[in-house]
Structures are given as C-alpha cells and as structure tokens.
Amino acid sequence: MKNSGFKFNPIMLALAVAIAATGCSDDDDNNDAPSPGNGETSSYRARATQMVEQMSVSEKLDVVSGPGSDQPINLTHDVSGAAGYINGVVNDNLNIPAVKLADGPAGLRINPTREGDSNTYYATAWPIGSVLASTWDKQLVEQVGEGQGNEGLEYGIDILLAPGMNIQRNPLNGRNFEYYSEDPILSGKMGTAMVNGMQSQGVAATIKHFVANVSETDRYYVDDIVEPRAMREIYLRGFQLAITNAHPLSLMTSFNKVNGTYVNERYDMLRSILRDEWGYEGLVMSDWYAGNIFAMNPLVPADPDAAVKQQMAGNNLLQPGNAKESLQQAYDAGTLTDDALDQNVIDILTQVQQTPTYRGYEYTNQPDLDSHAALARQVAAEGTILLKNTDTTLPITSGASLATFGVNQVNLYKGGTGSGDVNSAYAVNLLDGLSQQYQLNAELVDYYQRYFEENQYEEEVFFNTIIKCDDPMVSDNSDLMALVEDAAQHNDAAVISFGRQAGEADDRDSGRGDYLLSDSELDMVQQVSQAFHAQGKKVIVVLNVNGVIDTSEWATDVDAILLPYMGGQESGNAVADVLSGEVNPSGKLAQTMPLSYDDVPSSSTFEGLDTDSDGVIDETHMNEGIYVGYRYYTSFDVDVAYPFGYGLSYTTFDYGQPTIVENTLSTD
Ligand code: BGC
C-alpha cells in the first residue's frame, strides 16, 4: 500500500490566501509540514500557542468541549456516521476547520449509505484485535493500519478512534475483541504497528481506553482498585510503548475510576505520567459522556464539577460535547484557570493542524476496498490458531466432501458489537467460504439454513441489533439424527462451528451458552463425533468467538480445533484457506485458555462489587496484581488448556538445546 499524497483543495487554498492577506495565517505553509506521528511537533505547538492568543474564552471553550448535538463550528464537509467532532474557530484572525472523528478498532465505522445519495460508503471489516495479535506480525498489522488509515483518509475522517489497547485481564470482558492481548508488551507492539500504519496515511490514531478499563458492566461508575506495580507493569506499559514508539496524535481516556478517582480527572495520570514522564505530545480526549458528566444511570446523580475537573487534570477535550455551559460557569467562578484552559487548547490545536481537513486534503470517497479485502483475508487466515490436530486431521484436501453442523455456519459473527462494529459491504460466512473449496452435504446445509430462517431472533445490544439462533438438540430430533448418520457414511469429515457474540457495554457470563457450550452444542459435538468416529472419520470444530471459551469439557471428543475468533468480512474464506492447507495456520495465542474459568486469577473479582447495594457495580478489586494471564499460570504452576503463545501448524519442528547469546531484554 502506498502513502497517499496530499492534494490541496482550492477552497481551502483561497481561504488561506485571503487570511494571509489580512496578516494572519493559520494555514501557513503546511505543504512542507512533517507527516503526522513522527514526534516532531514543535512547529505545530508554536503555531497553536499563537492561535490561542487570538481566541476569546468562548472560542477556547468551544474547542475543548465538542459540539455534542449542535452543528460543529466551521465544518467544511461532514461525514455521515462520524462519532464526534472537534469544533473549529472562525474569527478575524483565524479560520480553523472542524475535524471529524470516527471509530474504531476493527475498521472504520461510518454510515454506509446517505439520504439522496446512490453511492455507498462501506468500510472493510478487518479481523478483530485478538486475531491481529495472534499473527505476532508487526509488519502485517502495520499494513492493516495503513488500510484502515487509508479508508479514514479517503472517506474524509481526520482522527480514527483506534486502536483499543486495554489488557484482556479476564476472558469475560465484552470488549476483549477490540483489544490485543493479556500481555502488555504484545499489546504495546501491536498498538505501535497499528498507529504507525494509520498515521502513515496522514490521519491521526487514538490509542484507547487509557487506562485499566477491564470490564463493561456499569462502566461509567466502576472504580478499579489496582496496586501501583500492576498499574505500571501491566496496565500502563502497552500505552507507554505505543506512545514512545509510534507517537499517536491522540489518546482516549477511559470511563472507569482508578483508586477512587476517574482517570480523566487524574492529573498524575494525564500530566505527570503521560506528558512529564513519557513526553506525550498528542491530544487527550474523554470517552463519550465519561466521568459522570451527565447522569447516564438515574441511580447515580451527575457530578456538576465533572467537566472542570477533567479540564484541570489535562483531559484536553470532552467528547462528544455539550459541556460548554458548565465550563463557562467554572471559568467565571475561577475554578477553570486560564493556564489550564490555554494548555488544553494548545494540546488540541497542535494536533488539529496535522489533520487532513486542516491540511486541505481532497478526499475521494474511493478507498481501495478490493485490495483491503484481500489483505483482510490474508490476516484472518494468518491469525487463525490451530489448537488441536490429532493424527493430521487437517489439512483436508480441497474438493473433499464435508458435513457442516451448527447454525453458526450461516450466522457468522464477523466482529463484536458496539462502537467497534463496522459497516462492511458483505461478510463471507463459513458456508459460503467452505463451498468455494469443498463439496458440502446439501441436505445438512438445507436443514441448517431452514432452521436458522425459522428460529432466529433479534437481541438489542448497545448500538446494534444482533441476530441469534440457538442450535437444535441433535439427540432428540430424529430427522437431524438421520442426517448425521447419513453424513457420517457418505461425507469425508464433519465441521462443527460455534459462535459467540459480545461487545460494548456488557460483559459475558461464565455459564452455558457463553463461556461454556450450551447443552445443545455439547449434544451436537457428542452425537456428530460418535457417528463420524464409528465410521473412522474425523470431526473438526471451528470457533467463531469474541474471546476465550471453555474447551476442556469437549476437546477430547473431537479431532481438530481451529480458533479463527472473528475474522472480519472475509471470515469464511479464511477458514477455508486454512482447512484446505492453502494457508499454513501459524497463529499463536495472545491469551491463555484456562482449564476452567475458576482458574482465571480474576474470576472471583470480575465484574466487581456493588458495595453500597444501590444496584450499580462500583468497585473492582484487582487483587491478582501483576499476575494477569500467563504471569499467573506459570508463576503458580496452574495447568491450562492452551498456554499463551500456543498454536500448532501443519509443519513439525525439532528444537535443539537452547543457548543464551544475549543477556539483556530488548522490547523493540
Ligand atoms: C466507546 C468508545 C468510542 C466512542 C465513540 C464510546 O461508547 O467507549 O470506544 O470510540 O463511544 O463512538
């Protein structure tokens, strides 16, 4: 993928000339400006400092508080489906355009269609963060970042609200799909690659959600009680690596509190650590309505001082907006100081100058979706993990006849829900992917398609409506039993697939149908395995899941297990590529799969406590400290189902006696 060159819009150019003629120049010679993200911000900061001197208090307050539901100030072009904006400034001296922000970690989230417009604005649904991390391939992840950045750029977006870099502390966090790993170093490296890729295209990346945002239940209120060492070594480390190595232009603070105070109100986090210690130069924005600024839950009254506390702590920008009035009152009362306000505006405008809109980029609305789809397929296949492969069950030669079981073959989950969802033009399910390379048992396909049509139901979740369908019990269904027996005689192998959906604003649960297989899923594994094994044939399970699920209960019943997680719009094709051996699976787990959920070190403290019995979870005690993921299992000799870093391939390897050649640890 090539970097896009900037083309200057004649209207912006005319404006710049007109402003220059009045003796001021907020568009001064940005043609030669350094590319965003190379860490060179001094010229932008100097210019932002001049700009602030030419702004009224009201204009400054507009910049630090997003427009909310109002029309953004000085919006030159809108992008339908943008998640937020930074207000622009227009006065006798300045003409700063509004800039546009859009989600998210698995691809650009904008509206795919627009009223009165026959064009479409689809984006690529890439494989989720856990898949990217499973590739352990920085170059490949950087390419995904380039693709995502290019789509943002060409669709007119300035700041991408991605990547998500929180630690997968517990398998049940609904948003784990947006994040990379249980390990901060791997997270930091993946985040670095993603930011570098995105920013190479001229758009800004936003690393989020800073920091220790490890659960979704009552996310606007929860207080994470975490010891300093764990905060430093586990929760801050990945962000630090991305900041040091990739200079993201933007960072989003999280919803949660840490040790009693909202992160976005903590001066120690936002100024002392981020800026003074790590030298962070980018802008800091809040998450949407974070910090109890409005009563998101009637059970918890809003804090009238939330906005000023965020400003005084160095949370530069309040998203999505509507905080101006409260900040004006704080300014009048002297609790919002000129110094803090000016500093926040300077931090924001330093980055705004580096955005495509400010630089006058003429976007085409025509990103290269075809090449991105090919890359998405490649990454989805390369990040797929082969968990089990007894007696070389896989690969299965193309052209073989397969019996496919489970409604998930039709009802693919391409990615998770919430702001991390992507409006892609299509998503290839397992059935469509496998049928490109195999002969599928037509009667079974027909059965599951019909069953899905007749039994699907909708579930409303944050931002989305998802379609679900529970698998039928096999053992008490004579029609289906007959199809299983027949398939076992006539097909070469069985492929069973399961799906698990999850996402923003809700956590998963440890029971049946979520962390554990449902009764009907277990029954399907047992019946299909018995029938196929009786004929000397193999059974393969494919896990189209948001995150870690149990395997202990059923893994011994089957011959091969493939973990593609959620592979994005090319999911089905990628699974077929791996099954057939077109691609050698070489994904390695970025998270541990425990023997039992109870073995997870945070199982007894997730998803927190309702300490005052008001119906809202308000505290999570992160008692495991630094012992998150493999750090716990290996330090305390706890057996696991599949360890961090695990993943088979179709090749066999021999290891000799290792020797130590370097006695220092590099994190490059
Ligand atoms: C999410 C953010 C997202 C924002 C804008 C919030 O609910 O937590 O990750 O970027 O919405 O859509």
UniProtKB/TrEMBL annotation:
| UniProt keyword Hydrolase, yes or no | yes
Task: Tell me the PROSITE patterns matching this sequence.
Answer: GLYCOSYL_HYDROL_F3 (PS00775), PROKAR_LIPOPROTEIN (PS51257)
SUPFAM superfamilies from the entry? (Trans)glycosidases, Beta-D-glucan exohydrolase, C-terminal domain
Its domain of life reads Bacteria
A single Pfam family, by name? Glyco_hydro_3
Please give the residue ranges the record annotates as the region Disordered: 26-45
Task: Please state what the protein is called.
Answer: Glycoside hydrolase family 3 protein
Q: Which organism is it from?
A: Vibrio olivae
